[in-house]
Amino acid sequence: MEQTLSIIKPDAVERHLEDEIKQMFLEKGFKIVKEKKIQIEKTEAELFYQVHQTKPFYNDLCTYLSSGPIVVMIIEKENAIKENRNLMGATNPKDAEEGTIRKKYGISIDKNSVHGSDSVENAKKEIDFFFKD
Ligand code: CMP
């Protein structure tokens, strides 16, 4: 069993899509191991997205992630990291395939409704970031 971090982003929480998105995970056989609804400071978003710090969209991305409540979840399944990325769909919702979360709910490349870890190493880091007690 593998674990990964999923975030339901402010655009989706604002539109009350949490339950529908969680249902999509459950239908694909994911177990939601831990979850919490929080709002983070911009400085925390900057740390979380540190890997993107040289990108031109970094500042807007951090402003956005800290702009409203988010739901952070540890989700578990065999091959969870890859399976989650498949279920989320392409980063830009306009490129995402039918049946994916971003195709169904994403608004734009920024407001793309969900985040998921992209590697084993980052899944560990991102889970620790939000759930280390
Ligand atoms: P996420 O999976 O959370 O990881 C980084 C985020 O940056 C990505 O989703 C997008 O929402 C956001 N982003 C904004 N602009 C871009 C871009 N040009 N390319 C990739 N990601 C972008």
Question: Topology, pairings included?
Answer:
Elements: E1 2-8, H1 10-14, H2 18-27, E2 31-38, H3 42-48, H4 58-65, E3 70-77, H5 80-88, H6 101-105, E4 114-116, H7 120-131
Antiparallel strand pairs: 1-3, 1-4, 2-3
Adenosine-3',5'-cyclic-monophosphate is lined by residues 52, 57, 61, 91, 109-110, 112, 115.
**On the 0-100 scale, what is the average pLDDT?**
97
Proportion of β residues?
Answer: 15-25%
The CATH topology annotation reads as: Alpha-Beta Plaits
Uncertain segments of ≥5 residues (pLDDT<50)?
A: none
Task: Assign an overall shape.
Answer: globular
Bound molecules: adenosine-3',5'-cyclic-monophosphate
From the alpha-carbon coordinates, what is the Rg to the nearest angstrom?
14 Å
The number of strands is: 4
Largest sheet, spatial ordering of strands:
2-3-1-4
- CATH class equals Alpha Beta
Q: Report the CATH architecture.
A: 2-Layer Sandwich
Count of the domains: 1
